[in-house]
Each structure stands twice: as C-alpha cells, then as structure tokens.
C-alpha cells in the first residue's frame, strides 16, 4: 500500500517510535543478561532458568510491539476500494416478447424463465437505481418508465404478452428515448446519473431485415455509443429451440452473433444463457455491475481490531509470565 492509500499518512511517523521501543527493549534485555552473567554462577543460573523458556518471557513484549504497529497504521487511516450500492443510476430493461419466446427448449419456456429471472433482477437492484421496462416484438413500447417502484416493474413483467416479429433496433431506440425523457424530467445537465440498457432476446431481428437499416439494431447501437449509454445484451435460448405455429414446426435458434455485435458497437457486455440457472447468473453479474460502484473508503477497522486483540493478549501474557503488566 502506498502513502496515497492513507488518509492521514503523517501518523506513520509513529512507526519510528514503535521501532525505537522495540530496539530499546532488546538493548535492555541484552544489558540485563550481561549483568546477570557478570555476577552469577552460570551453571547454577542455567539450572534455575533454562534457556529454552527465554522466548516465552519475551512474548508479551513482542505482542505489545505488534499491537502498537497495528494501532499506528489504524491512526494513519488506511483506505481501500469498496463496493457500495449506487444511489443514482438508470437502467432500461428491454425484453423480447416475440413468438419465438414460447419455445420450451428452456424449462418451462423461454418467456416464463425470462420473466422469473427479470423479476429477481429487479427486486435485488439497490433501491437507488431507477429501473424501466420495454417490451418488444414487431414494435417496442415502454411498459414502465424509470422508477424505484419495483412492484410496478414486476407486475408489468408478469403481464408480458407474446406477439409476432422482432424489432431489436426499435427496442434500443425506444429505450434511449425513455432515458432521455427521464433525464429531462429530473433536470438533466452535467450531473445526469449513469444509464445502461439491458436487452434480452432469443433471436434475429426481423423488422427491418437489415441490421444496418436506419431503424436497425446496429444503427441503434451506434447511437447508444454516441450518447454514452452502453447496451448489454443477453442471448437467451438454445440452437435447437422451436415453436409450433398453425401446426407447423418452426426452428428458432438463438442469434449470438448479432447480439454480441450490438454489445460491441455500443460499448456494452454480451452474455449468453441456455437455462434459467444460467440466466439468473447473468442477471447476478449485471446486478453487481450496475447496482454497485467502487469507491475509496476507510479500511482502518481490521487494524484497530488487530491492535486491540494483540494488546489484550500482551497484557494477559505479561500477567501469566511475570505476574505483572508489561
């Protein structure tokens, strides 16, 4: 740890005093031993006080010095990076509700697993995070504007309805607009809280077909990058998923490639999950990334505890060994 890691580094000068105390103790012991040897019969002295017990008599002093070291470091105010809940941030959660989400390659179905994991994610986000919800299929709509009211989010997630087609680009554009409206509502400015879009989908964009179309997902991802709003994508499902529509079996494999590119273009992170457990793990990671931040905080408590414990042990050892305090 460098000196910059201490709030009051000048207290570390006290270590010089502690070192002086340790050196003085060693010199005093050396002087006492010389005096004893000068005036005593060595054979008689060794039979009364065997050398193998000498180390134990010094233990209280050693513990005392270690205690002083710990307490001195504590006074210097050591600091360390600590994860604390964010008190300001905005997240838009965009969930794919296209018909392919009815596939049962994920038990009980892609949609039901997505709903369960999303509700847990919403409930476990720190209370200072404003969370909004967008549902998208052939179009995208804001179901809940950013809010700290988790009940409104979980209720909307429970009521998601499937529809045809997948407009991934519209989901990002709609989320960006919702974030802009929210920022305008709270005053905006340079102190705007950080924002992130979390987009969960299981398939390829179908509206429009071209991802680089003006309303396509890649175009939306580039715009998100310009606005400084990363899009973290979750590819949910397997390569062998299928749905039955009017008696016809239609394969609906996940599209990792396009979702990963959306994350790359926007500066976000890409995740994939093929089961409810994996999806919950992804949301746990996102919850940690989005809900917490690293700040430099006080780390003196362990040093104080160590100093107090060592001081108590030193006192106890002195009473046992010499029937007196050091």
Question: Would you mind describing this structure in some detail?
Answer:
Helix content is 48%, strand content 19%. It has two domains: 3-78 and 299-322, no CATH class; 84-296, 3-Layer(aba) Sandwich (Rossmann fold), CATH 3.40.50. The chain has 326 residues and is of the alpha/beta class. Strand 3 (129-136) and strand 4 form a beta hairpin. Strands 4-3-2-5-6-9 form a six-stranded mixed β-sheet, sandwiched between helices. A two-stranded antiparallel sheet has the order 1-10. It has a two-stranded antiparallel ribbon with strand order 7-8. It is elongated. The protein has helices spanning 14-39, 42-48, 54-75, 110-124, 150-158, 168-185, 217-226, 256-266, 276-291, 301-322; strands spanning 79-85, 89-96, 129-136, 140-147, 195-201, 231-236, 242-245, 248-251, 270-273, 292-298. Helix 3 (54-75) runs antiparallel to helix 10, helix 6 (168-185) packs parallel to helix 7 and helix 7 (217-226) runs parallel beside helix 8. It is built from ten helices and ten strands. The mean pLDDT is 88.
């Amino acid at each position: 740890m460098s000196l910059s890691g201490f709030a009051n580094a000048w207290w570390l000068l006290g270590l010089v005093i502690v070192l002086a105390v340790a050196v003085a103790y060693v010199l005093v012991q050396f002087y006492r031993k010389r005096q004893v040897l000068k005036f005593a019969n060595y054979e008689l002295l060794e039979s009364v006080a065997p050398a193998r017990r000498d180390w134990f008599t010094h233990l209280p002093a050693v513990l005392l010095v270690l205690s002083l070291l710990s307490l001195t470091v504590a006074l210097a105010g050591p600091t360390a990076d600590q994860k604390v809940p964010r008190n300001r941030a905005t997240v838009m959660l965009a969930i794919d509700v296209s018909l392919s989400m009815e596939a049962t390659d994920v038990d009980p179905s892609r949609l039901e697993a997505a709903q369960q994991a999303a509700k847990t994610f919403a409930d476990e986000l720190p209370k200072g995070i404003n969370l909004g919800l967008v549902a998208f299929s052939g179009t995208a709509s804001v179901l809940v504007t950013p809010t700290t009211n988790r009940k409104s989010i979980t209720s909307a997630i429970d009521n998601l309805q499937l529809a045809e087609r997948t407009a991934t680009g519209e989901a990002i554009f709609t989320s960006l607009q919702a974030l802009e409206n929210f920022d305008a509502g709270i005053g905006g400015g340079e102190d705007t809280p950080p924002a992130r879009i979390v987009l969960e989908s299981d398939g390829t964009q179908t509206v429009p077909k071209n991802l680089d179309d003006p309303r396509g997902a890649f175009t939306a991802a580039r715009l998100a990058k310009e606005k400084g709003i990363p899009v973290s994508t979750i590819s949910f499902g397997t390569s062998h998923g299928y749905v039955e529509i009017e008696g016809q079996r239609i394969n609906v494999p996940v599209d990792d490639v396009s979702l990963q590119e959306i994350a790359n273009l926007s500066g976000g992170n890409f995740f994939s999950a093929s089961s409810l457990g994996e999806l919950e793990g992804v949301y746990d990671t996102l919850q940690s990334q989005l809900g917490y931040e690293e700040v430099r905080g006080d780390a003196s408590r362990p040093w104080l505890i160590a100093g107090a414990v060592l001081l108590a042990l030193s006192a106890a050892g002195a009473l046992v060994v010499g029937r007196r305090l050091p």
